Amino acid sequence: MSEPGGARSATASAFRTDIEGLRALAVLAVLGYHADVPGFAGGFVGVDVFFVISGFLITGILFSEIARTGAVNLANFFARRARRLLPASALVLVMTAIGGRLLLAPVDFPLVAGDIAAAALYAVNLRFAWQSTDYLAGDRDGSPVLHYWSLAVEEQFYLLWPLLLLALLVWLPRRSRAARPKHAPSLPALRVFLLATCAVSFAVALWLTERAQPWSFFSPWARAWEFAAGALVYACRDALLRLGARRAAALGWTGLAALALGVVHTEEAGFPGASAWLPVLGSAAMIAAGTRGAFPAGHIGGLLSLAPLRLVGRLSYSLYLWHWPVLVYAMHAFGPMYWGEKLAWTLASAVPAALAWRFVEKPIHEGRRGATRRPVVGFWVGAAASCSGLIAAAWLAGPVLFATPGVAAENGAPPALEAQLAAVRDDLPVVYRDGCHLSIQATESAACVYGHADADVSVALLGDSKAAQWFPALEAIAQARGWRLLSLTKSGCPAAEVTLWSSQLSRVYRECGQWRDGIFERLAREPPDLVLVASVFPGRVYDASRQEEVEGADARSLWLDGWSRSFERLHAAKLRVALLADTPTAPQDMARCVSAHPDAPERCDFPLPAPAIARIETDAARAAGLPVIDLGAHYCRGGRCQAVIDGLLVYRDKTHLTPAFVRRLVEPLGEGVDAALARP
């Protein structure tokens, strides 16, 4: 988000009404995208427009001060940013915490509280980047403060940019300053610096987008070139002032067309790579077109200066802050929505946004002149705002983080359900903590041996997180029977030889195929007595021949072929193999459901899904003459899968069983493994 109210020209004291209108276009694009309005598929590029605007305005402010005084008063600069941005931001964080307490399931309190705390510290972009590549982090698109990532990037820009420009001023050779007024900055040197910044940052964006797209999307280093593009417009202002009226008008309308094209056609996959140039250059062109300050008939500035657009631009910061938590909580309260309903809630968010602008943002920003000029006031305002966000986060997390643990009864009864729910998000098999369950980007498995390392009988567990969920029971079996247990699991990577598209990486999941090939070669060199394989059907499979994801019958066909190839490959290596049948996927997050209905967890039970998907892998295994270990009867009874059995929470999310419940299945699982080992 560009600084609210910050549309003053970098070249004169006149207010840039066209920039205020451009801010309106940017926020409307984002609002349309979040509401799923047709034609706004690439509306997320509105954030890039804000970055360009900020680069232009802040660079102009800083260099104007350098020209006047030879330096930048950093205390005043940061205090002004704090007064303008932080109070309105903190208010939304506090209201988001209150809304979370009212509308979220308690099990989600700590996760959202962590988001709010990171947003209050303006580091939430890094938190989301890490979580986006964490396979078990879930769908973070539902975080009510997801949109704060861009505010964090801007704050990081505000912290670093003045220091970089001051360093540039100090670095300039003295002789380059001799012919200029005492404090005038060197625009040619600035242009060289900005072009270098654009080149390096854009190269970082391309490199990260190819390898870890979330880090490119959320990283300030991959976004720095967008700020630098706006700064370049300021650095080229002398040439732009000489631009004729017709050329300026053509430049502005071309920029608007580029931005519109970006809003309609830009795809999230591969962004912010090369496709980010369209909105960035478009917005930079519109800012450049208005450098002269006069908007004759036919100029883009006249359109952008229309009163309705200026009003939206004036409210854009508050609109951006309020619209997303309102929309997220509306969907929590009323369920999935069509785009028309989402748009209605998005428009409704204009009411609290306008009130916040009138009674919080505007008064603090335009307070008494003497008081607002004192940097210490701005710092105290910023500190109070950040602390209020942190306090709100702690208050939201409190009911779960500080819940009284349940005490197991003497007869071995499980802890209270509330205690299980409080720990469920972090309750994972030990292979996660040990680094033996590989992350999405890892390709090399360590020698993860459990049980008895020198045992005569060795068992290997192979597959994705659905295989790793069985580890607690298998480890107990290996310890009790003196076996050697080898863990070979990786997030989102099935044992079936299929190509997948990674939603976390926004590209083909190359690391999965590399890891799986290496594991098959390793098993052939060091064959265990039994290989237990388990994986979940991903729903969509990447068809390399068609260069696209497929679903339905096409995906199921590729899934069957993939299992057949894997079983043939394992058979060729003369390995004894057994399939652990997949556990049913619930229609909702079961821990969240039970958390919302702790006194009636049976409300979360769900009908046993049709076996069509699970039958694919079991049919492939049986066709290859392999045994299938199916424990479904222990958690799905009478055609329904249960959320809680004998006081134990069964599922930790939609798909994975809790370690505590898996340990309950040691005996039936051990019987199945024994039978598989006894086969020729």
TrEMBL record:
Domain called Acyltransferase: residue spans: 18-355
Pfam family, one: SGNH
The protein's Enzyme Commission number: 2.3.1.-
GO biological process, one term: lipopolysaccharide biosynthetic process
Transmembrane segments: 40-64, 85-104, 156-172, 192-209, 215-236, 248-265, 285-307, 319-337, 343-360, 376-397
GO cellular component: membrane
UniProt-listed InterPro entries: Acyl_transf_3_dom, Acyltransferase_3, SGNH
GO molecular function: acyltransferase activity, transferring groups other than amino-acyl groups
Keyword tags: Acyltransferase, Membrane, Transferase, Transmembrane, Transmembrane helix
Domain SGNH: 444-667
Domain of life where this protein originates: Bacteria
Protein name: Acyltransferase family protein
Organism: Denitratimonas tolerans
